[in-house]
Fold these 3 entries.
Entry 1:
Amino acid sequence: MFRTLGATVLLLKISLTIAYRPVFIYHGILTGADSMGHLVNRIQEVHPGTVVYNFGRFGGWASLINAWHQVQAAHDNLKLVCDLHPDEGINMIGYSQGGLLGRAVLQIYPDHCVKTFISLSSPQAGQFGDDFLHLIFPSLVARTAYELFYSRVGQDTSVGNYWNDPHHPDLYEQYSIFLPYVNNQLPSVNSTQYREALLRLNRMVLIGGPDDGVITPWQSSHFSFFDQKYNVLPLEESVIYTEDWIGLKTLQESGRLYIIERQHVRHYQWHRTNDVIDDVIMPYLD
């Protein structure tokens, strides 16, 4: 009897050892949980038994609601998941807008349980470009979009909350209620927490590529952005890195920041193409 019980306990320990962490997935703009179904299936094919929580709120046009509103609601969902996995923790994947909002969720959740955060082609340093804009606001052009987005009405939209016009940095700082704060460009009472919450991560994985076609500049997926002459400043030369506003420099120096660039991947292929998923996502899901 004791020999059988011992074998059962051993098998249980082995199964717990080889089990993969649960995964929380946050969808992109104008889509929803259904759009992430291929990614969910691929994760469970490659890592059988993985529990996947596919965030189901703010699908379709609701994804344009004010970013802070979405972030607070997603925080409540993530907390429920963390309460289910207090010991092993979870991994988190945020796609497109969901990667930016998902990162903010971690920042307002100081004792989150996320071990690896994967930002999949997300505008972490903001967005500025006609291609993306015309997907949502066909009549707007990037050159004049600030007139809408840098206003009280414009800040009621998620896109306005991370629209980063390099020609109007003063208006960006004056009106934007979201991105300059979660990037600690503007100080707030939560600035220290926003940085320390990201430093809880075992890994931050930033994924993007030059053929994305939506995130503009595509290097925003790596926290790089335009200067006023449309030159993209490398991450290591940007103030957010050199002054370590949100801990990116500390994460990199401690070997916890992974910057992934992959060519020939369009924006809507990152989460729907098996070889891309297997190459840039699966190696970081433990």
Entry 2:
Amino acid sequence: MPPAAAARCPLVWRAPAALGGALSRPGMARRLVAASAGGGGRAPAYGGLLLDAGGTLLQVARPVAETYASIGRRYGVTKPEKGIMEGFKRAFSAPWPKTLRYQGDGRPFWRIVVAEATNCTDDDYFEEVYQHYAHGDAWRLPAGADTTLRELKDAGVKLAVVSNFDTRLRKLLKDLNVSDMFDAIVVSSEVGYEKPAAEIFNIALDQIGVEASKAVHVGDDETADKAGANAIGLECWLWGDDVKTFSEIRERILTTDDSQ
């Protein structure tokens, strides 16, 4: 997912002895922001953070092609993993004739993707693959994501998930122990709009009570995330390009440097 950069200024600070000596970098950031906000200094650089789910906050625990192939062996799938991945990308990015890719639980869309990727139309195979991705152990959070979310929340930043996903998403966030961190979870299959539509971003901003000009969105798609967010005046950092870790997100939001 592509561009937009803002300079990061690392904070150099030594904890006074009264605070117990050296603090961890995350602890240092939190105390600096708390002291700043409470003492007339700068508040966090953004009042709200919107996060994409799949590909940004949620990463697959192992490669999709590997999973499709390993489950598929019991159903006669012999297609090599490289071919499976090529078919997956082709089906996933193909124009979808309906308004939303994910209707409800997303089965119609995912059935086509799995069949195109593997050349297997066995209903039992599809269901096993589908159910595999309905559980949190098929996914992982990027390193430091949970710590960053807690620190941003402690600093008063409003948090929201804004995702083109099906109705499994809420359970996945709960399985990964992060659903309680968010002030809003906005899912395309539930609200009837998908990114890059302005409506889905505006719904999230309304729910967290933050204006577009005072929030930032992080996602991994140039069109759905960046173009969609920018169209309503919402800044967007592309995951993997503008920011590569949740530590970077934390430091860019919790900075107290006047240059930000």
Entry 3:
Amino acid sequence: MATLKEKRTCGQRCEDFGRFIWNSDNGTLMGRTPEKWVYISLYYVAFYVVMTSLFSLAIYVLMYTLCPYAPDYQDRLKSPGVMVWPDTYGEEVIDISYNTSDKKSWMKMSTILHDFLKPYNDTKQLECNKHNCTKGKYFIQKTFSAPDHTKWACPFTQSMLGACSGLEDPTFGYNCSMPCVIIKMNRVIDFFPTNQTDLPPYVNCTILEGHNNVAKIEYFPERGIMDLSYFPYYGNLAQPTYVNPLVGVRFSLVGEKHAKIQCRVVADKISYENYYDPYEGKVTFYLKAVK
């Protein structure tokens, strides 16, 4: 018949633990002799040195093969997106609504546009960007000839937006029924919007709803052109002073002063029929003025 295991006291347990830490009979420290502890320590030091070296080598090789100026894979960016300012984006739609009789309402819209156009200040652009860009031709640069090993960028000034620049009319037309919106195409590195050098991309806005409520559409620069000299874009590291070309669009609202509008950047390499990306090549928004 098995005997019950003897219950050990707290003092005996502490004594056993102390013997495990250092056993003078066997000369072991926590179950191993000092010589074995030296061997196992050297093994783990060598193991982690080798693992750290392999990891560092892998990171070095990866970074060496990466281009710092452009991502290796851009297969998801076949066509750039398009955005509109004032950027009053809701959950599903862009609703640019304002009250011409409420200064706070239309000042909100003009303030958004003034803040957005700060980088396009004429003096700032002409100081930091190349002046002698050739209009109507791609600005292809194979070398880093600009200061600090960068590439030049063509200036796009606020005044190029004409009546939608905020210089002639600081309210951008939001104190009446002739509001301006700013259309911007997103950047894609090394993207050429067209195969031809004599046909630049341009913005075209169409009325989807409320055709009788828009009497006239005006574009700034003329014909809504995004000049080819702003392409290709070489990346923020290569072109730190680059700014996107813009197009200002002014609408003359009449009647009910409400319309659903779609603005598209037209070029043979810019698609706009992607059902899963409503902002690819185009942007749709509601424009409404109340009094």
